[in-house]
Write a structure and sequence with these properties.
GO terms for molecular function: tRNA-guanosine(34) queuine transglycosylase activity. By secondary structure, the chain is an alpha/beta fold. The chain has 16 helices and 16 strands. The strands form four sheets. The chain has an eight-stranded parallel beta barrel, surrounded by six helices. The structure holds one RNA strand.
Length: about 400
RNA sequence: GCGUCGGUGGCAGAGUGGUCAAAUGCAGCGGACUGUAAAUCCGCCGGGCGUAGCCCUACGGGGGUUCAAAUCCCUCCCGGCGCA
């Protein structure tokens, strides 16, 4: 009855890695896969024709952004996010939970999903605009949901698990996420626990709210999100609780310290049911993280890194990342990256791209975005192929050695 | 030729006696970026060094006044404009 299914095609002995096929109403994703981030119903700088050409399988939009602009109604009128943006493949929407963090605790503090040496105050405060502003935040959390001011015009809004579901139903993506709280990596254990437990209650409400909408529940798959921050025992507890709910798949969210991402995934994925898909939210800047994720049983990833790095001048190449704005590339007429297979990489020179970036020509950002995203598509495609023919370990060794150097 | 205004760091352009190695922007150099408030943000940016500090040389050239000059005076050079 549901148009959603996940089939494991191959596994790699001695690891939790698997190659699979994740089927949705709008197409099948061959996993492991990198999902392109298209927050505002656009993968910045790239047309959907380009996305198809470079092998993008699915796009992930964001509830928060699309709710604010153009509004979920407009998207619904267009037939959902896919039709709206002229993307015929599978789509995901994030629940807006990440914005609870990025506009809340993380606001203006320069902290991100990974641990930094920044101190954050995580006090729970009843919402009012003045208070929020005095705390330097655009979002304030309470048990029922999150109140926030729009970053566009300062107007007041409120998300609850039910509201997030309602919006995501209207946006109509094939895979949607439960409303969660992504905590700051600097939050202490007591807060992580409190936030995690709240996220669990929100997960239950999201699920209930989703099932109640029979029509949406048939067309859209709902993924629950495991939290727990950087504390192993909380991660485990969260995985157990979320795994115990009737979700179609799982998202692994929240913050990690760089060093224990690996360990967290290892724990979480032994607890999550093997037969359901797992999406690692927001990870995929470093190629080695993708190999690690796959090895620990992650099926899909999403990350803004390929396109953001591209726009800011950092390009992936088979020999590591390069900063195209560095002086040395001004006169480097060699091709950007002949080895990865990217059209851009084997067509345009570093000197030309350096020129486009220096002169702020928009083509620079476009070509760089295409290249970086292709790089990730290619990486995941090769990883999948290596799982299918059993050469995963060899491929990882070969790729990482070339990418990071011998060191 | 006379008059007048002006000559400041790579460029543009503030400053018009001390808090000026000199605002700001651009350019330059480097860095960051992980469920996108990001075509963004952060450093450095006269020279040298042990770079939260110290030393040297500096505001067209030269000479003065002053405890102190990018800032005032004289002179020369250069440029814009006006008049011959």
């Amino acid at each position: 009855m549901s148009s959603f299914s996940f089939e494991i095609v191959e596994t790699l002995h001695g690891t939790r890695a698997r190659a699979g096929e994740l089927s949705t109403a709008r197409g099948t994703i061959k996993t492991p896969a990198f999902i392109a981030v298209g927050t505002k119903a656009t993968v910045k700088g790239l047309s959907t024709e380009t996305l198809s050409r470079i092998g993008v399988q699915a796009v992930l939009g964001n509830t928060y952004h699309l709710y604010l602009e153009p509004g979920e109604k407009v998207v619904a009128e267009a037939g959902g996010i896919g039709s709206f943006m002229n993307w015929s493949g599978p789509t995901f929407t994030d629940s807006g939970g990440f914005q609870v963090f990025s506009l809340g605790a993380g606001f203006g503090k320069g902290i991100n999903k990974f641990e930094r040496d920044v101190d954050a105050d995580e006090a729970l405060v009843p919402y009012n605009k003045e208070l929020a502003q005095s705390h330097g935040k655009l979002a304030i959390i309470d048990e029922d949901g999150v109140s926030f001011t729009s970053h566009l015009d300062g107007s007041l809004h409120r998300f609850t698990p039910e509201r997030s579901m309602e919006i995501q139903h209207a946006l109509g993506a094939d895979i949607i996420f439960a409303f969660d709280e992504c905590t700051s990596p600097t939050a202490d254990e007591a807060y992580q626990k409190e936030a995690m437990e709240r996220t669990h209650r929100w997960a239950k409400r999201s699920l209930l709210s989703h099932k109640r909408n029979i029509d949406s529940a048939r067309r859209q798959a709902l993924f629950g999100i495991v939290q727990g921050g950087r504390f192993a025992h909380l991660r485990e507890e969260s995985a157990k609780v979320i795994a115990g709910m009737d979700f179609d798949g799982f998202g692994i969210g929240g913050s990690f310290s760089k060093k224990d991402l690996d360990a967290s995934l290892a724990r979480v994925n032994t607890i999550l049911p093997m037969e359901k898909p797992r999406h690692l939210l927001g990870i995929g800047s470093e190629p080695r993280d993708l190999f690690d994720g796959v090895e620990h049983g992650i099926d899909t990833f999403d990350c803004v890194a390929p396109t953001r790095l591209a726009r800011t001048g950092t390009l992936y190449t088979a020999r590591g990342e390069i900063h195209i704005l560095n002086a040395r590339y001004r006169t480097d007429h060699t091709l950007l990256d002949e080895e990865t297979g990217s059209e851009v990489g084997k067509t345009y020179s570093k000197a030309y791209l350096a020129h486009l970036f220096r002169s702020r020509e928009m083509l620079g950002a476009v070509l760089a975005s295409e290249h970086n995203l292709f790089f990730m598509m290619q990486l995941l495609a090769r990883i999948r192929a290596s799982l299918l023919d059993g050469t995963f370990r060899e491929y990882r060794q070969e790729f990482l050695t070339k990418y990071y150097g011998k060191a």
